[in-house]
Write a structure and sequence with these properties.
7 helices; 232 residues; mainly alpha
Length: 232
């Protein structure tokens, strides 16, 4: 720890054991800034989710426009939704930085104050927050971020896309009469229906697996901690 860090720990006019009025005011403004930035990035997350929903709606309108319409748009929209998921996972990593900082200040500074404690004391929590400002970095990896977005929103979008696609195959142009007819309708160009079916299973199975694995990793990482109060 360098001398600049030590001088920051004990500000001029303070003892280093208590926050004085100016320090509390500075933390209040810092908290407002972190909440503002987290709100902005939260709005950007909603934007990519809305894009996914809108594109899925367009694909549904085209595929179900008539019994003779092709189900292909419902397959292609899955690729587009996956791209939006990748963009949203990237945005979530930024959002999580501001969210974690704001939540950290809430639980370590404001909560003790509201619990009628004396003025919250500097401590290890303060050092962790300071280091996060001195050496800023993402708090979670890309795959964990993607897993969280799948569990929050995209599991429902992908599920609706799959149900809509298989529903189209089953009822149009006429209700199915056999399993062989099911795979015949799924055939796409030179690719037989069985291949398309297996690709769909792998495609959706990958998202389900990612959601479950990252969920287990999140639980393991936060075991014994304060959940969302943690930094990351």
């Amino acid at each position: 720890m360098n001398d600049d860090w030590k001088s920051w720990e004990t500000p001029p006019g303070g003892t280093g054991d208590k926050f004085d009025g100016p320090a509390i005011g500075a933390l209040a403004h810092l908290y407002r800034g972190e909440v503002y930035r987290s709100t902005i990035w939260r709005t950007r997350l909603d934007t990519t989710t809305n894009w996914s929903v809108v594109t899925l709606g367009i694909a549904l309108s085209i595929a179900y426009a008539s019994p003779a319409a092709s189900p292909l748009p419902l397959l292609l929209v899955g690729i587009l939704i996956a791209m939006f998921l990748i963009l949203e996972a990237r945005r979530y990593r930024y959002f999580n930085v501001w969210r974690a900082r704001a939540r950290w200040i809430e639980t370590k500074f404001y909560a003790p104050m509201l619990l009628r404690s004396s003025c919250p004391e500097p401590g290890e929590w303060q050092d962790i927050l300071a280091r996060d400002y001195l050496t800023p970095d993402y708090h979670i990896g890309f795959w964990r971020a993607m897993g969280r977005r799948i569990r929050r929103n995209y599991m429902w979008i992908f599920a609706f896309q799959a149900v809509a696609y298989y529903g189209k195959i089953i009822i149009h142009p006429t209700p199915l009469s056999s399993v062989n007819e099911f795979f015949e309708r799924m055939a796409l160009g030179p690719f037989p229906g069985v291949v398309i079916f297996l690709i769909g299973v792998v495609f959706h199975g990958a998202w389900v697996s990612l959601a479950l694995v990252t969920r287990l990793r999140d639980k393991a990482r936060h075991a014994g901690r304060e959940g969302v109060g943690g930094m990351g």
